[in-house]
Amino acid sequence: MKSLVVCSSKTGNTRRVAEAVARALGEGTVLATPADAPDYREFDLVAVGFWIEKGRPNQEIRKYLRRLKGKKVALFFTLGADPASEHARRSLANACGALEGNEIVGHFFCQGKPDPALLKWLRELPADSLQSQEYPFCWTQAIEHPDAADLERAGETFRRIASEFKN
Questions:
Q1: Is the CB of residue 34 less than 8 Å from the CB of residue 58?
Q2: 34 Cβ partners below 8 Å, 6+ apart?
Q3: pLDDT per residue over 3-30, tens digit each?
Q4: Is 78 exposed, middle or buried (0-12, 13-18, 19+ CB in 10 A)?
Q5: Tell me, what's the pLDDT at 95?
Q6: How many CB atoms neighbour CB 108 within 10 A?
Q7: All domains of the chain, ordered by start, with CATH?
Q8: Buried-exposed string 1-20: b where 16+ CB fall within 10 A, e elsewhere
Q9: I need a labelling partner for 135 at 20 to 30 A (CA). Which of 85, 98, 112, 127 fits?
Q10: Does this model's pTM top 0.85?
Q11: Residue 96 CB neighbours (<10 A)
Q12: DSSP conformational letter for 4
C-alpha cells in the first residue's frame, strides 16, 4: 500500500503527530506539506493532518482538501481544546464535511500546545467572557501535548487503518 501523509503545522504539534503516523504506515510512506506534496492520485491512502483554526482545518489544508477527489482519506489534527469537547466534535465534523467525493477511512485527534499568540489574545479578553472562563483549564492540560501517549495512540490508530485497508 502506498501512503501519503500531508500535514500543515503551525507550532510543531501536528508535525510530531504526522511523523508518528508516517512511521505507523510503514516503509515507503511519503510525508509532505501541501506545498510540496506529490500527486495524491499516485497513492492508495492519503492521511491529512492539520491544526484547528476557528473550528475548522487551517486554511492551507482546507485548500488541499478541496483538491482531493475519489480517494481513501484518513484525518488527524491537533487542537488546544479538550479532545472530548463539543468544539473538538464540531471540528471533526467540519473537516469531514470538506471531503465530499472521498471515502473517510479513519481519524485521530489530540490536544496540542496552543500557539503563544492565541494564549496572549485569550488572556487579554475581559474576565467575564466565556473564552476567558473556559480556556485556563485547557491551557494547563494542553501545554504538554502531544505527549508520548498521544503519539502512540496516533500510531496505533493508523496501523489499524492500514491493516483494515489491506484487508
A1: no
A2: 6, 8, 60, 61, 63, 64
A3: 999 999 998 999 999 999 999 999 999 9
A4: buried
A5: 96
A6: 24
A7: 3-166 (3.40.50.360)
A8: eebbbbbbbbbebbbbbbbb
A9: 98
A10: yes
A11: 15
A12: E
